[in-house]
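Design review, sub-item: ligand-bound model
Attendees: FS, YL, KQ
YL presented the inputs for the S-adenosyl-L-homocysteine complex:
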Amino acid sequence: MNPWIAKALVLAATVVMIAIRAPHGHGSRRVKVIKSHKTPLEAVLLILAWVGFLVPLIWIASSAFSFAEYPLRSGPLISGVVCFVIGLWLFYRSHADLGTNWSITLEVREQHGLITQGVYHRIRHPMYSALVLYGVAHALVIPNWVAGPSNLVAFAVLFALRVRAEERMMLEQFGDEYTAYIARTKRLVPGVW
Ligand code: SAH
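KQ shared the predicted structure:
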């Protein structure tokens, strides 16, 4: 199959992702941060996430990774489209449910409320589940050993090194309410983990 199909798909998914996030970034910036847990590690992880996000775009626009190309097949392409659709839907819903409580890093905002409804009802990190699906979609759709897994690998490192600190911050802020929330939810996959 022609790799331009994959390039068009990845570009379209990137545009949708930016369109979902941009208004929320704008909205939450207007709400004051009262506690920031942005450590140097967090800063490094955010740079890593940007690199993971940009590598597929470099693959679309140039031949920099042509040495790592392999043939595109319909099975992985279709599975990747399914992951893109579910991932982007979950990305949209988690932003809608989190509202102005959203931050790109670990922060508590003025009048920060603990969200436990909508896609937060059964899992504590639906936005991260969405980003895992988005990363898996890249790995399936992009027929390239460098550009394909870049998003997923970058996000997996970010998740592994952030999730405990985020939950510690939420526990500090919401105490027993968050303890009870942990007890009745899973992290990424409803009923599993
Ligand atoms: N980990 C969540 C949110 C990612 S955005 C998810 O994957 O869906 C990161 C910010 O969201 C954190 O700085 C924290 O302040 C906020 N946050 C995380 N979980 C929250 C919740 N249940 N309710 C309100 N804010 C939350």
